[in-house]
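For the sake of transparency, this paper describes our internal protein records without simplification. The remainder of this section carries one protein's record, kept here as part of the documentation:
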Amino acid sequence: MDLYMDLLPNDAIGVILGFLSIGDVYSLKKVNFSLLERVRLCQKDTRYLMDIFWGVNVKNINLIGRDYSLPYEPIVFGSMTVKTFRKFYRHFHPKSFTINGFTSTLNLTKHLLRNNLGMDIVIHVDQKNLFIVNRTNVSLYAEHLTIYSEDKIPIDISMQILKLMNQRIKHLRIHGEVNDMQFVFNMLPKCLQSLEIYSKSGVHDVRSLLRFVELQLHNLILFQCYEVCSHSECVNYHAITSQIKKCSKFPRKIAMAPFPFDAIKWCEKHGVCIDIQKSAFFDFEFNDVMNHFNNT
């Protein structure tokens, strides 16, 4: 083993290291001092590790960051503590981080929510971290924030405990179930440029729609936020269009589900780009909507 490895050039050793498990690499270092120095040198030039293709255990984060020069942020599995995350952040400078029960301890959740690191945050608000989030002095300044409101916790409550109205977020995306769209509007953060709300079910009161449309955002997506029946006699079918026609200001781009055809034409008349890929339409006017876009 010693003889064969000593005969190999460093670039060949580097290729071999990329295919070895992390444990085997450190076993190789124990063979002799000469091999230890060569492997250590080659590790710093190793930019690919097959062993972490599907992810790296959180326990090995410091080893990977310290001994290798990976040009990418590895997928990590396991729950990070504050101490582990600091090492991860120092080595890889992640642009985003997902906070949930599988990726972070409750202490790390608290740490990330009150220490602004400039990262994009994805947070799952559930029964496990609801109490700790509610007790945290949240301070967020992020380009992108995504919230998943789970375990029957309404979107409204998640926004309230995160104190979103006091945060500075440019692009906000929320998934869950909404109870009160007017309350959601009141909880919106500062500096908002785009808003996406994906609700499992909508509210019947559509009066808040006007306020969302008049925010003059770059991009607005309201998916199933307002409850509408599937026939043209539904009161809200006409109410949605009526609210949009009252608007004096519009976003640059809009998507809705459902999106009445008359409301689409009114938005286009005022120079709004319709995102048809993220919109949904009523069955009884689907063909008319498709023909309209195909002919424009």
